[in-house]
Amino acid sequence: MATTKQALVIGATALAATAVTITGVGINLSRGQAFFRESPKEVVDEVWQVIDRSYVDGTFNQTDWKAVRREVLSHPYKDKAEAYTAIREMLKKLGDPYTRFMDPEEFKNMQIDTSGELTGVGIQLAQDEKVKNSLSLHPLRVPPPLPLACWPRISLPRSMARAPRD
Question: What pTM does this model have?
Answer without folding.
Answer: 0.50
